[in-house]
Design brief:
8 strands, globular, 714 residues, three-stranded antiparallel beta sheet, mainly alpha, five-stranded parallel beta sheet
Length: 714
């Protein structure tokens, strides 16, 4: 077998069992790599009903036209601007609105990220954001450096000479943003924050826009747009008082206006009286440092008008720590079925206490989240808050495992937790749908893992990393993959659960191997194997032994590797674990080939292929055929090798696995050359070169050179 650790099916011990799913690109990495730059378009939807801020919008326009390469030249070059102001003042709305207004100036795309600087969980790290941007710019995960410096340098290189608009939302500090700014001033970076980010102004020359609350006139104009000009014109003085009670904040004005629209009989004077009464009732809660001081009365006034079930839903939604929430997770959180949850969430959207960001995805504004949590702490017993979070975490665990069972049916399963009365309506019909769910919920899954530990739900805390491990590995989110299992290991240790400790340690062995930390990998595998042996959990011990064997194989110690594979094989056979048996045989065949024993290599490979056929593991069967073909070629059984490679190519092509198909085609071309079939050899090489080019693989040049050499010789 050609050594190819970046895309080998033996890539990471037990986790390599996931690649049989049939949607794998590059062996184990499920993604669609591109060789042509595709302009990303990531801006959120432009806010509807946006009014005012014309002076600030024009200021941003002036900053933009001073940029080199813009339509108007001659001003001081500007590539960065900041938009700062207090919470609820409309920073994000204005930034997104302006970005949509000018996005045509940036033919190479736009990038957007919410840094989550003021949410319930930790803000995004600069490294994480750079990884997300690099992926959006079509960089293969394996080509993304691990460190901040390397990622930042690659990011700047990719954007050099391009015209890309970046919107970085909710940043906490200049340091968090600095490495996200392109080196090319043909790009434009807009950063929003509650803080002034003076460091960007001083060091990067950013031009600041500071948003204040709306003026009295602007506030009344907004109320007119929302409530009707005639209604406001009839009571202008009362409208001004309403604006003052809303702190002149757009968010609060919209909440008040929405409820007032639904009460057409209410005069604005009566509205002022109601808001004043609510303000007096809540004065004791306000303080100079209280971010809700200008909005609490408005939110409370709107909240108190809700029905009891909507009040409870609003309170509980604030306990969700992810950036947004879908219907299934929301239904679990509030303890309802999906239909009832849909009704309640849409009702909250209707009164501006919740946003529907995309179809069936919902989000709380930061201020409303703070108010929601305040209400939950004041009105919900601790037991009810705990039960709500437990239901939500259980939904994520069970739904993730359902997705895993479709995409990775041969991955080992573990005992989960009882579903109770959860509405688990999500069904996944195929692997791509399951992976799409993961892509949508990835950040929520990360938040759920943190919350499981914070709320003492340690059983879910160690199980959730395990049932999602294949997703994080397939998508090559290496940093998150590792941190998940470290968190899972800590949760299992706190719970005193040896089984949970073993499975997370096993995965940490895979992580360490993937990152070429071989001593650490062996230590983790041995720890997992010891616990697995003690618990009589054969699959843990077997895959841990095989994991150590894969490390030895990669180090070139094929004799030691073979011993580990034989030990694993014995355990798998004893426990009737057919796929583990097949994978161990496949690895033994590779070692035999490396040790120049083609007879043994063919025997092991043939036995492995037979097992994969019997258990109907289609993708791994194709990969087994590829390995067997290499051994057959070494024994000069060319016709048999050709038959194996042709069948492997058919499967890889069907499953869109470009790396494996290209490798099989290169070998098939060699066999055609041996049989003097130049035409078919060149056809295989051309197709292999195309696939390597699509993947951005340097082997494309080598294959092209072989084609040219053969043509020159002819």
């Amino acid at each position: 077998m050609v050594s190819r650790p970046d895309s080998s099916n033996d890539f990471s011990g037990e986790a390599e069992t996931v690649v049989q799913a049939g949607v794998v690109h590059g062996g184990i990495h499920l993604h669609r790599a591109q060789h042509v730059f595709t302009a990303p378009r990531q801006l959120p939807l432009s806010p509807s009903g946006f009014v005012n801020r014309e002076a600030d919008l024009l200021k941003l326009d002036r900053f933009l036209v001073a940029r080199p390469g813009s339509r108007e030249q001659g001003r001081t070059p500007v590539g960065v601007s900041t938009v700062s102001g207090p919470p609820g003042v409309g920073k994000t709305a204005m930034a997104v609105y302006w970005a949509h207004r000018v996005r045509s100036e940036f033919p190479d795309g736009d990038l957007y990220i919410d840094m989550q600087g003021f949410g319930p969980g930790p803000p995004l790290s600069t490294e994480t954001v750079l990884e997300a941007f690099l992926r959006a710019l079509d960089v293969r995960p394996d080509n993304i450096p691990e460190g901040l410096t390397g990622r930042a340098a690659l990011f700047r290189s990719l954007l050099d000479g391009k015209r890309v608009l970046l919107l970085i939302d909710n940043a906490t500090s200049s340091a968090q943003v600095r490495h996200l700014i392109p080196g090319s001033r043909q790009c434009f970076t807009l950063v929003t924050s509650r803080n002034t980010l003076s460091g960007l102004v001083v060091r990067e020359g950013a031009l600041p826009v500071t948003l204040d609350v709306l003026s009295s006139e602007e506030s009344v104009l907004l109320l007119s747009e929302l409530m009707g000009h005639d209604r406001i014109a009839a009571e202008v003085e009362s409208a001004q008082q309403v604006a003052q009670l809303c702190g002149h904040l757009p968010l609060a004005l919209r909440v008040v206006a929405e409820r007032a629209v639904n009460r057409p009989q209410l005069s604005l004077a009566d509205l002022v009286d109601e808001l004043n009464g609510e303000q007096r009732r809540l004065d004791a809660l306000a303080s100079a440092e209280d971010e809700l001081s200008d909005t609490r009365a408005v939110f409370s006034w709107s909240y108190q008008a809700l029905t009891p079930d909507l009040m409870r839903t609003f309170r509980l939604i604030g306990l969700h720590e992810g950036a947004d929430i879908g219907l299934g997770a929301a239904a679990a959180l509030i303890g309802a079925n999906v239909g009832e949850a849909t009704r309640q969430l849409r009702a909250l959207v209707g009164v501006h206490l919740l946003q529907e960001t995309t179809v069936n995805r919902f989000q709380l504004h930061a201020l409303l989240r703070s108010y929601s949590r305040e209400r939950a702490l004041a009105e919900e017993a601790q037991a009810e808050r705990m039960q709500a979070v437990r239901r939500s975490l259980t939904w994520y665990l069970l739904t993730a495992d359902r997705a895993r069972s479709v995409l990775l049916p041969f991955f080992p399963s573990i005992p989960l937790v009882p579903p109770g009365h959860l509405d688990l309506a999500d069904e996944f019909v195929n692997g791509p749908q399951a992976m799409s769910w993961f892509d949508t919920e990835r950040r929520n899954l990360l938040a759920a893992m943190r919350q499981a530990t914070e709320f003492g739900q340690f059983d879910i805390g160690w199980k959730l990393p395990f049932v999602t491990t294949g997703f994080f590995e397939l998508r090559s989110y290496w940093d998150e993959w590792e941190s998940n299992h470290r968190s899972g290991l800590a949760a299992a240790e706190l719970l005193g659960d040896s089984f949970g400790e073993a499975v997370n340690m096993q995965m940490l062995g895979d992580v360490a191997w993937r990152r070429s930390r071989f001593d650490e990998a062996i230590s983790n595998y041995r720890h997992a194997a010891e616990i697995g042996r003690h618990l009589s959990a054969g699959w843990i011990e077997g895959f841990a032994l095989r994991g150590e064997g894969l490390v030895r194989e990669q180090q070139g110690d094929f004799h030691a590797a073979s011993e580990m594979f034989r030990s694993a094989l014995q355990i798998f056979r004893s426990d009737g674990l057919r796929r583990g048996e097949g994978m161990s045989l496949l690895s033994l065949g590779k070692c035999a080939h490396a040790l120049n024993d083609p007879t043994q290599a063919v025997a092991f490979g043939t036995a492995a292929v037979r097992i994969f056929e019997e258990i109907d593991d289609v993708w791994t069967l194709a990969w087994g055929r590829l390995a067997l073909a290499i051994s057959l070629m070494a024994g000069e059984a060319d016709l048999d090798a050709m038959a194996q490679l042709r069948r492997a190519c058919e499967t890889f092509r069907l499953f869109d696995d470009h790396h494996s198909e290209a490798e099989a085609l290169v070998l098939l071309a060699e066999l055609y050359v041996r049989s003097d079939d130049v035409t078919n050899a060149q056809t295989c090489r051309r197709r292999a070169a195309e696939l390597y080019e699509i993947l951005g693989d340097s082997r494309a040049a080598e294959v092209r050179a072989r084609i040219e050499d053969m043509e020159a010789g002819a």
